[in-house]
Write a structure and sequence with these properties.
Layout (H helix, E strand, L loop, with lengths): L7 H15 L6 E5 L5 E6 L3 H11 L6 E5 L1 H11 L11 H9 L4 E6 L1 H8 L11 H12 L4
Antiparallel strand pairs: 1-2, 1-4, 3-4
C-alpha cells in the first residue's frame, strides 16, 4: 500500500522524521533553478517537505550550497515527497516544479540563516557569494520572486 499523508499533521510528522534521519538543518531559503541559473521556484521559510526530500537525495545537511539534479535524482525526490499531495489543505507547488524539471537537468540551492541575514541586511555583497546558484536565488528573492 502506498503511504499517504492526508493531514497537515501527518505531513509535518513525515517531514520531521525525514529531517531527523538526515540530521538536516532547515535553510531559510531554498529554490529550484535551471542549469543556466534561472530561478524556477523560490521559497523563504517554507516548502520544507520537498526541500528535505531533495536534500536527502543530494546529501545536503546544512549551510548554503547548490547541487546539480539529474532526472533520476528529481524522480527520487518526487517519490519521497508525493505522499504529501494527499493533503489537500495546502498547495504543493514545489512538487509540481520538480515534475516540470523532471525531464532534464536542474539545480537545487539552499541558503543558510547567516547568509540570508547578511544579504537582507546588506552586510554581505551578493557578488561575494561563491556559489552562483545561491547568489542567483538570493538575487531573485531580493527582487521579490513570488514564493
Amino acid at each position: 500500500m502506498t503511504e499517504r499523508w492526508e493531514t497537515i499533521e501527518a505531513l509535518n510528522a513525515a517531514r520531521t522524521a525525514m529531517e531527523a534521519r538526515l540530521g538536516w538543518e532547515q535553510p531559510v531559503a531554498w529554490g529550484l533553478l535551471t542549469p543556466d541559473g534561472a530561478v524556477v521556484r523560490a521559497n523563504v521559510r517554507g516548502g520544507y517537505l520537498p526541500a528535505v526530500a531533495v536534500a536527502t537525495v543530494v546529501g545536503h545537511r546544512k549551510g548554503s550550497r547548490s547541487y546539480p539534479l539529474t532526472a533520476a535524482a528529481i524522480a527520487e525526490a518526487i517519490a519521497m515527497a508525493e505522499p504529501g499531495e494527499a493533503c489537500t489543505d495546502i498547495p504543493h507547488p514545489n512538487i509540481a516544479a520538480l515534475r516540470l524539471l523532471g525531464g532534464g537537468d536542474a539545480v537545487v540551492a539552499y541558503v543558510s540563516e547567516a547568509d540570508f541575514v547578511e544579504d537582507a541586511e546588506g552586510i554581505g555583497d551578493i557578488e561575494e557569494v561563491e556559489d552562483r546558484y545561491v547568489a542567483a536565488l538570493l538575487a531573485e528573492i531580493r527582487r521579490g520572486f513570488p514564493a
